[in-house]
Amino acid sequence: MKKNIVAGLDLGTTKVGAVIAEKNGDLIDILGFGVAPSEGLNRGLVANIAKTAEAIREALDIAINRAGVEVDEVNVGVAGEHITSLRHRNYVTISNPDNEILADDLERLKTDVKTIRIPSDRQILHIIPEEYIIDHQGGIEDPIGMCGSRLEAVNHVVLASIPAIQNIKKSVERAGLRIREYILQPIASSLSVLDESEKDLGVVLIDIGGGTTDVAIYSEKSIVHTKVIGVAGNQVTKDIRETLGIVTEEAEKLKKEYGYATESAIIKDEDIYIKGVGARGNIKIPISLLTQIISVRMRELFTIIENDIRNSGTKNKIKAGVVLTGGGSLLKGCTELAEEVFGCPARIGVPLELGSGLSNEIGSPEFATVAGLIKGIPGSTASDSIIKDKSSKKKKNIFSNFIRRLQEIFDEL
């Protein structure tokens, strides 16, 4: 029988991806994978619960049939412009006789973070420690077992809209599943495409999807900034459609087959024929014209990210460059434009550290998120809604045990 089975669900604007895998130490063997068209989401938000649930069920059924195993819970990716983040620093006093730091002390730190004041329509999605500080000595990754009288933590706290999370939960539950863990999509993507040396030196991950572009910045192996931007591949397609007066399907095809992110990357500028609509006949345009349309939007996207990096104060921490992933990164010339805008090296990121099975099928940038979802986030705290569910279950068990004990007493009498 298969052990350590885990499933991931990537709710995208253009597609829903489901993957079932078996964990074998550090390697992950892909057992089943399925994709279904997505019509119920818009820019990372659920716009239609019924359609989203239908796409989830379709993608998961394909994955289950291929894997030969059933799953009833999944890790789900979360995106959308409702996502915000902040840095929070707190401390606890070590009171045990030996001044040894225990796991309970780390839990006290996390519990304290959950008491910070946040807007009433927000919930904590992740609490990810950036570093620990013992008696004013910083740069500590794992303080358990060390000695000190004061333990501090610098945390990266990710907040999400409560209604947005509730709509995701309803969609997944309507598809007959439980949510094991919510994972911010740029963090999931970084788990699958970044290596530890890049995270240590400082790197920007840019995941270009259909409805949103997700950004995560790492420095000294810790996440220091996250951002979700509502400009992505669908906007590029829309620009082509409206400028050339063609249908969306034709615009998407032109983008993928002939488009470039920047004119400097064009290998040969030749004419391409565009299918006319209605009474309008076929026309031909040079690839350079198509590229000019695409380049305006892509340059805008990278400029927004560059400005966000500068505003976050993390620009000087980026030494390893930029890693582009997601379906939008497959656009030719993306790395050249990124290097021009960000002024540092850029590469395309594909899922790493996958084992055997169907791993080759998700070894593409467009599946970076779903590949990361099956890994989970080491050292992070689950969202408040999951914590509440577990707490309710614990209370229920305590009450059940109490009733059972009372019954035993009455039976003895």
Structural account:
With 413 residues, the chain is of the alpha/beta class. It has helices spanning 49-67, 103-113, 162-174, 185-193, 196-201, 233-244, 248-258, 287-312, 334-342, 368-373, 384-412, and strands spanning 5-11, 15-24, 27-37, 41-42, 45-46, 73-78, 84-93, 122-134, 137-140, 150-161, 178-184, 203-208, 213-219, 222-229, 271-274, 283-286, 321-325, 346-348, 354-357. The chain has a six-stranded mixed beta sheet. The protein has a five-stranded mixed beta sheet with strand order 14-13-12-17-18, with helices on both faces. It has a four-stranded antiparallel beta sheet with strand order 7-10-8-9. A hairpin with a 2-residue loop joins strand 13 (213-219) and strand 14. The chain is globular and about 85 Å long. The relative contact order is 0.15.
Q: Which class of secondary structure composition applies to the elements?
A: alpha/beta
Distance from N terminus to C terminus (CA atoms, Å) equals 47 Å
Look at the structure and give the mean pLDDT: 88
- Portion of residues in beta strands equals 25-35%
Main CATH class of the domain at 200-348: Alpha Beta
Q: Give the spatial strand order of the biggest sheet.
A: 11-6-1-2-3-19
Instruction: Count the E strands.
Output: 19
CATH 2nd-level architecture of the domain at 200-348: 2-Layer Sandwich
Shape: globular
